[in-house]
Amino acid sequence: MEFLRTILLFLFLVFSLPLPAGGFQWPIPEKHARMISSTFGESRLDHFHAGVDIPGKGIPVLPMKEGAVIFAMERNIRPNELPFGGGKTIVMEHPDLSWSVYMHLDTINAQLYTQKDISREQTIGHSGDSGHSGGAHLHFGLYYPEENRIANPLKYLPQKEIFYVNNASPSIKQFGVLMEDRFAIIRDIEKPLTMTKDYNMYAAIEDSVNGKERWGVYSLKTYKDNDKKPVISWDMESIYFKNQKWLTKNGLEFHRVFYDRFYNLGNHFRDATNITIEATGLNGVPIRKEYTLNIIKNK
Ligand SMILES: [Zn+2]
User: Measured in angstroms, how far is the CA atom of residue 40 from the centroid of ligand 1?
Assistant: First the structure.
């Protein structure tokens, strides 16, 4: 009797544990795997890239987890047809109440309109370039509606080097300064630089496996001189869309993070003697670089 109770308690504990981290799967079968072409949180000029892209046309798309289809749209809406450029789109709800989103599809499996509960082995559609898309790819995203949180899918997917490998450091390509009337590109930040006002400084920073990819970075911190407190600090674990504004988890608006595709390093560097940039990919090697500034404060 005691033995049976132990067994029952054991079974209860095992089955009441939360789902393991492997609960989500990549939405493309491994035999069709391609390295991701865009990562989460990159600049899309006026908003953050709210998902991850895998290139390719006609590739079968799998659900990231078993669940129910709550939205499927066949119409190929063009970018000027507001409000939505996702093209053929599927949204699913999963047992953990997350939603997964699949966009720019070429086809949607017709079965989804009658059969609502979908297993993780079932093809839900094929990748394409419907909607606002520059070349065929699957865009997929993960959303937690109860928290109004757009999550970085790469934090939830198993690490698979065939889709994403991050063993390199990001590289800092060039710098820029945003003035009232123009954005000036600066190739060498350590050369004398005339700054008449306390303008924001920017840097093009790219992450990749071996220089081929041009992914955005996962996190950024900048420091002025030897300050302990960063000037700019954020990571792309999650983003939010609130009151028509795109925000990082710590509340930075899109334009505080990006100008075009340049990362904002912050301001108040006019009196500084150096600037330190610390950037990381999702789980790669961080880069930490200190630059000696030579700013001439012309009036
Ligand atoms: Zn995308």
Answer: 8
pLDDT along the chain (299 residues), means of 10: 60 48 85 96 94 97 96 69 74 96 95 91 96 91 96 95 91 95 94 93 93 92 97 98 95 97 96 96 92 89
How are beta strands 238-242 and 295-296 bridged, if at all?
A: unpaired
pLDDT for residue 171: 94
Class of domain 171-296: mainly beta
How far is ligand 1, taken at its centre, from the CA of residue 36, in Å?
10
How far, in Å, from the CA of 128 to the mean position of ligand 1? 12
| Domain limits, CATH 2.70.70.10, in the chain | 23-155
Residues 33 and 152: their CA atoms lie apart, in Å, by 19
Name residues with Cβ closer than 5 Å to ligand 1, which is an ion. Answer: 51, 53, 139
Q: Which residues of 227-240 are buried (b: 16+ CB within 10 A; e: fewer)?
A: eeeebbbbbbbbbb
Classify residue 283 by its DSSP letter: S
- The reported pLDDT for the residue numbered 211 is 79
Round to whole Å and give the CA distance between 197 and 267: 10
**Centre of ligand 1 from the C-alpha of residue 85, in Å:** 11
Q: Quote the ligand 1 centre to 258 CA distance (angstroms).
A: 17
Q: Which CATH class is domain 23-155?
A: mainly beta
Q: What is the pLDDT of residue 26?
A: 98
What pLDDT, on a 0 to 100 scale, did the predictor assign at position 172?
Answer: 95
